[in-house]
Write a structure and sequence with these properties.
With 638 residues, the protein is of the alpha+beta class. The protein starts with a helix and ends with a strand. The longest helix has 24 residues. It is 25% helix and 13% strand. Helix 6 crosses helix 7 and helix 9 packs across helix 15.
Length: 638
């Protein structure tokens, strides 16, 4: 604790002297309209935001204790001062009075050694975890600070700001092998920047190159933030600082990236378990709340090892984490067999480990259309949770639709209030020349949610349903009624009389049920572990199943419900579809396979003799903000 206090005092002396320019209890007025007004965490972030806004001359930040709820925590930017008034909840300042005394990061010019990274101490791991938790919880604040240190860097789009799923994705992409077959590759703290910064423009349909292999697009700013942590012991300023940077103490960037991905996993597990205890995130609860399978219980902690070697910086590229060597990227539209073989050939993972790793990682986070031309979420309104939810989708388990609107969170199922039966629809996103990329949409056969009759509270929900139509049987009664293809994405309006004169236990008229898709999707690489189909080598269009091949047109735009056979590929003797079903039913069996698969992933390409057992106290360490006099709240872990 004494060492933490020493760090905090040092941080205050080095970085917060400029706070003397601010006037507490003063609100600035302006004869003009405000430039902007948005919530910030504190007056420091308000100052940084003003600095980064071209026409801003002064600012006022209102504390969270303000009597006006519309002003609490808000930062107001102005371009002209027209006087001031006393206001006990306000803190104000003018840029000309606020010289920036934050020193630029100290970077050793030649910190690359070509040697395995030195071992981390327990204290270093706890401090770095605190820094990462600040990034995960206050990404906007950290971004503003970084931009203040690097004024030549353009502000990234919101979807590029670091978060836990991006750190996990970075951990995977940094461990890819190189296609040149030369030494190196694997987890070496580097990314090839080809494709970074590309933004998909699909306003003109079928006008972009077809998507096949993934790239590192969308990871650049996360790598930049981690590089600042690596080289600057004081960054970010809302977390405890280090006496020396990781770089100067001969730690490697590759070890930092592996640690960041490990912390992201713990963060996702914790968010899942907190939601299982009733915590609400973004007005939504956990879909499995109240069930025995909701919380994750790991049989052992994740092990972090050190000793990875960074790639040699390229003289032709701007940033030290960039490499010009081409990586062996996976096929983003591959089927189950191709994806499993990729993980075996490039990571040494078994079929079971491949399913556990990819299906678990994809439960976490969301698609970014600008990066990849793929849309929506793998797990709608559940994207903060690392769990087995995607496996439940892939295996088409009956479940409720999570309806998180402006009112109370509700669950929507079938006309009797049971979990809805689900199937898959495949859509052409119509961005690429061949109408792709092709994306799988999770279909619920349910009541519409756009009414006041269909929603259930969690207490009213049930875990079982009857009848169950065995896949690939269509749950609709197509023999006695016309079953048209239903390809609506947004929540449809509720037809008239669907909620009228309902019998006991009914949530809508049975005839009002239909297949509805609402922002929940997956990739061929995900569903391919469960269903057996082929994909076109260029466009990624699925084929080899009746629903795809018996269409009236070979250039179909959507096809469903999918009726492909289950995936029987069994590289170690166990059919992959059975693995998916097991993970869908038993979450703790999945996590116990996910953890060792992840550990193998972040050791890819590293000689076994180089890896050393790392710190252990970081896993399970409590991270929170501690109030320090004159500094405010500072992130620390213990």
């Amino acid at each position: 604790m004494l060492l933490f206090i020493f760090h905090f005092v040092t941080l205050f002396c080095l970085s917060h002297a400029w706070k003397g320019c601010m006037e507490v209890g003063v609100k600035l007025n302006s004869p003009n309209s405000w430039i902007d007004a948005s919530k910030t965490s504190n007056a420091e972030e308000c100052f940084l935001w003003c600095r980064l806004t071209e026409t801003c001359l002064a600012f006022t930040w209102f504390s969270n204790q303000h009597t006006n709820s519309n002003l609490r925590g808000h930062c107001v930017l102005i371009n002209e001062i027209g006087g001031h008034v006393q206001n006990e909840f306000a803190t104000s300042g003018r840029l000309q009075d606020c010289p920036v005394t934050i020193q630029p990061p100290i970077v050793i010019p030649n910190y690359w050694t070509g040697e395995p990274g030195e071992q981390w101490t327990e204290e270093e791991a706890l401090i770095v975890k605190a820094k990462l938790y600040m990034v995960l919880n206050s990404g906007g604040t950290v971004t503003n600070e970084y931009l203040g240190l690097h004024p030549d860097v353009l502000r990234p789009a919101n979807y590029m700001i670091p978060n836990a799923p991006k750190m996990l994705r970075l951990g995977f992409h940094s461990c890819l092998r190189y296609s040149d077959g030369l030494d190196g590759g694997g987890c070496d703290g580097c990314l090839n920047p080809a494709g970074m910064g590309n933004v998909a423009n699909c306003t003109v349909q079928n006008s972009n190159p077809d998507v096949k292999y993934t790239d590192n697009n969308g990871l650049g700013f996360t790598a930049d933030i981690l590089e600042e942590i690596y080289t600057n012991p004081e960054f970010p300023h809302g977390a405890v600082i280090m006496e020396e940077s990781l770089a100067t103490t001969r730690k490697t960037r590759a070890d930092l990236w592996a640690f960041a991905a490990s912390v992201a996993i713990e963060w996702g597990v914790d968010r899942n378990n907190e939601a299982c205890e009733g915590e609400i995130m973004n007005k939504c609860s956990h879909l499995q709340f109240g069930t025995p399978e909701c919380k994750l219980s790991l049989s052992r902690p994740l092990e972090f090892k050190t000793g990875r070697t960074d790639c040699k910086p390229s003289e032709r590229l701007e940033k030290r984490w960039q490499t010009d060597r081409k990586e062996v990227q996976p096929n983003a539209q591959g089927n189950g067999r191709e994806t499993t073989d990729y993980f075996q050939d490039n990571f040494g993972l078994s079929g079971r480990e491949s399913v556990a790793l990819l299906g678990g990682a994809h439960s976490f986070g969301t698609f970014n259309h600008a990066n990849s031309m793929f849309k929506y979420d793998w797990t709608r309104k559940q994207t903060h949770f690392l769990n087995n939810q995607l496996f439940r989708h892939i295996a088409m388990k009956p479940q409720y639709f999570s309806n998180c609107g402006s009112h109370d969170w509700t669950l929507v199922g079938d006309h009797l209030g049971q979990p809805a039966e689900t199937r898959w629809l495949v859509r052409a996103n119509k961005c690429g020349y061949g109408m792709g990329p092709f994306q799988w949409t999770h279909w619920y056969h349910r009541c519409p949610a756009s009414n006041t009759c269909a929603g259930l509270s969690q207490d009213e929900s049930v875990t079982e349903r009857w009848p169950i139509h065995e896949y690939p049987e269509d749950p609709r009664d197509c023999e006695n009624q016309h079953c048209r293809e239903e390809d609506e994405r947004a929540e449809p309006d509720t037809p008239a009389r669907c909620c009228d004169n309902l019998g006991e236990g009914q949530k809508c008229k049975e005839g009002c049920m239909k297949f509805i898709a609402n922002d929940e999707t997956a990739l061929s690489v995900d569903v391919g572990f469960y269903l057996d189909f082929q994909v076109d080598n260029i466009t990624g269009r699925p084929h080899g199943c009746p629903v795809f091949d018996d269409q009236h047109s070979a250039h179909w735009g959507s096809a469903g419900p999918v009726d492909c056979p289950k995936q029987m590929y069994a590289p170690e003797g166990e059919p992959l579809h059975l693995v998916v079903e097991e993970f869908a039913d038993y979450q703790n069996l999945w996590i116990d396979d996910f953890i060792p698969a992840f550990e193998q992933m972040v050791a890819n390409g590293i000689p076994e003799e180089d890896l050393q057992a790392g710190p252990t106290r970081w896993w399970g360490a409590d991270c929170n903000q501690q109030y320090v006099q004159k500094l405010g709240k500072i992130w620390g872990c213990q």
